[in-house]
Amino acid sequence: MAEPPRPVLLAAVFALALLLRLPRAVQRWDEVALAYAAYPAPTVEALARGDLPAALGTWMGLHPPLWPVLHALGELLLPVPLLALLASVLASSLAVLLVARVGGPLAGLVLATAPLQLAYAAEINNYPLAVALVAAALALSRGPWWALSLVAVFGAWTHILAGAAAGGLVLERAWVDRKQAPQLLLATTLGLLPVGVGALRRMGQAGTFDQPALDPGGWLEAAFAAVGLPGLALGLVALMGLDRRLLAALLPVLLTLGLALGAGAAAPHQQPYLLLLGPPLAVAAAQARRRLPTLARPLLVLILLACGVRGLVAVGEAGQGVAALVADQAQPRAIDAALAASVEGDLLWLVAPALQADDDKTAMAPVLWRLPPWAWMPMARRVPFEYRDFRYGQPRQWRGRTVHSSTELYAAPFDQVAAEALGRGAQIYVVLYEQGPATGLLQRVERVLQPYAAEAGRFPHPGGLGEDWLWRVTGRRVEASP
């Protein structure tokens, strides 16, 4: 058995993981983060009314309820968006530490610098936690049986693929440790039963299998785009270091993902599924260096250099984005005028088009950064609607104001919200920004606002994508008598 890594080396790998991931928390404070934070709204509402069974039974689509419950607790107790971003950064960094504990510092370096792991390290969703739980299952696969069982249950309650990986490790442990197998299998099975029942219910619902049909060639192309040439080479090196325990973690994930893709339950274009393969592959790559040093060692050096360069480039790009963000704060924009003119009780509606695919995690949001993520920002809903409905812009309270953020301005939702705000004497500020590439968006916003008494203002912005617009809505127009 290999000697455990020295604490100082583990601390160094963990520090590197944090250093590479913390810029993501800055970069990922954008409008998409607000939309992600809206998905667990049913869980937040269940906990707010004290209905814990309902909260534990509420899934986000095909995603089990553990992360929504944790996120909902944050929304209710400490609704500060930066905490959600940093929680994901911490989970992703802990995954690196656990992998280094299992496979040594080299395995930790592999996971710490993997471009796909970096790209999703600060998302407000369940993937960073799921990766950490897969890494924890690897770390505990030879530890106390109850600890492995507990982590496996937590993994399955977080993500189906995390449950598949941890479940495979449970079966492998039961195979090699027949004495403790009965209690391990019984405890894990009991903990997984609610998730299994929930998954069966999801399978019976309309829309579960409505994802686009799988194109194997297209999926492989997308997977290669996600991991890049270093990731592909790393996978080949990892093949040399696989053992029974790592295969027990990998094969159930691949089988479950293949079945879900083939059945239309998983979206073929989604990259985050591949994140769950990261911990066992990183350990396998480190083991390959020990098993086949002549062949694997030079390859690993090249791969780590390539991944490290990509990681540093990503950090550099994030740094440039932060510099541009700081520079933007010094320029007058429509949002600044809206924040200065508005008072407590008023309503702000931010409109910006979606200019990047959801898997592109490189955009910065200088307008949203006028509302810093360390501010108290609870969910807000003065009128009845499903909070996850993107047309309403998932409103938040910020310094007494209600702030919506959407990619379009839809007439029916806006009219519903505006009627409530104007009815209590509030003013409404509609801010349109970064709208140059979106053909006709300005005209569509103007059509929605046509029935209202509104003052419009233009704010040229040479550094942005088109000029900003601001409308101050004070009431509805009086219709002329026939």
Structure characterization notes:
This protein is α/β, with parallel strands linked by helices and 482 residues long. The chain has 2 domains: 7-38 and 80-318, no CATH class; 332-476, no CATH class. It has 19 helices and 6 strands. A 6-stranded mixed sheet has the order 2-3-1-4-6-5, sandwiched between helices. Helix 1 (7-27) runs parallel beside helix 16, helix 3 packs across helix 5 (66-77) and helix 14 runs antiparallel to helix 15. The longest helix is centred in the middle third of the chain and has 37 residues, at 293-329. The radius of gyration is 25 Å and the shape is globular. The model has no long low-confidence stretch (mean pLDDT 88).
Number of strands: 6
Q: How big a fraction of the residues is strand?
A: 5-15%
DSSP helix count? 19
Question: Could you tell me how far the N terminus lies from the C terminus, measured between alpha carbons in angstroms?
Answer: 90 Å
Output the radius of gyration. Answer: 25 Å
H and E order:
HHHHHHHHHHHHHHHHHEEEHEHEE
Tally of separate domains: 2
Low-confidence stretches: none
